[in-house]
Design goal:
Its EC number is 3.6.1.8. The chain is mainly α. It has helices spanning 3-14, 22-26, 29-49, 52-75, 81-95, 97-100, 109-126, 142-154, 163-183, 186-206, 211-235, 245-260. The chain folds into three domains: 3-95, Helix Hairpins; 131-209, Helix Hairpins (Orthogonal Bundle); 213-260, no CATH class.
Length: 261
């Protein structure tokens, strides 16, 4: 028995109404979806930390999510795990004609990227998805989806020529946000905040930066520097709540200096 067959068997046992796990049995696609997203982020986290033992474990957790969904689908007569694997194999072969078909195997760079997009466009058309934005997943993190939406629109020419125009729009959105805050209209301020974040995501896309990755890195930096503040205060038997902004800001700058050393 292969390891994947063993895993599929375990999943079937867990979902078996006769002696299976009550929690696993009561789950649905909707209730499991958040765990699937969480496991994908934990894979990314292990990669970010360079912890490859943990990465192996997290990839297993993510694979289990695929097995879980496939098992529920099989129970409903929709599809099975083998169908998922077969569909993925077919897609990879279809999207790499320069490897698996008769197209020029030396195709590289922009030409290969354009060919990939042409194939995906043909797939969308076959699914009757005629809109440019039709298959951009709604379930993506908002910043990542914003970048993908602007990328898709840019392919048909709906894009600013350079980052200069994006910065102009960024300044415009900041001014509009400040105006709504000053007016005390928090509903409109919330809308303007969304507009501002959308422009930031667009700027990231123009620069070739994944906004989720950039923000994840900044989050990690914030945690690292704040932990420095906590550690320095703890030397004097104090906590951040027993400090003030001026002192903590000074320690923040010390953390920045220490990182550059």
């Amino acid at each position: 028995m292969t390891p994947i067959d063993h895993l599929l068997g375990i999943m079937a046992t867990l979902r078996n109404p006769d002696g299976g796990c009550p929690w696993d049995i009561e789950q649905t696609f909707a209730t499991i979806a958040p765990y699937t997203i969480e496991e994908a982020y934990e894979v990314a986290d292990a990669i970010e930390r360079g912890d490859f033992d943990e990465l192996k474990s997290e990839l297993g957790d993510l694979l289990f999510q695929v097995v879980f969904h496939a098992r529920m689908a099989e129970e409903q007569g929709l599809f099975a795990f083998d169908d998922v694997a077969r569909a993925m194999s077919d897609k990879l072969i279809r999207r790499h004609p320069h490897v698996f078909a008769d197209e020029d195997p030396q195709i590289t760079g922009p030409a290969q990227k354009q060919r990939w997009e042409d194939i995906k466009a043909a797939e969308r058309q076959a699914k009757a998805q005629t809109g440019v934005l039709d298959d951009v997943p709604v379930g993506l993190p908002a910043l990542a989806r914003a970048a993908k939406l602007t990328k898709r629109a840019a392919r048909v020419g709906f894009d600013w020529p350079s980052t200069d125009e994006v910065f102009e729009k960024l300044h415009e959105e900041v001014a509009e946000l400040r105006a709504e805050i000053a007016a005390g209209d928090l509903d409109k301020a919330r809308e303007e905040m969304g507009d501002l974040l959308f422009v930031v995501a667009n700027l990231a896309r123009k620069l070739g930066v994944e906004p989720e990755d950039a923000l994840r890195g900044t989050n990690a930096k914030f945690v690292r520097r704040f932990e420095f503040i906590e550690a320095e205060l703890a030397r004097n038997g104090r906590t951040p709540a027993q400090s003030d902004l001026a002192e903590m800001d000074g320690l923040w700058n010390a953390a920045k200096t220490a990182e550059r050393a």
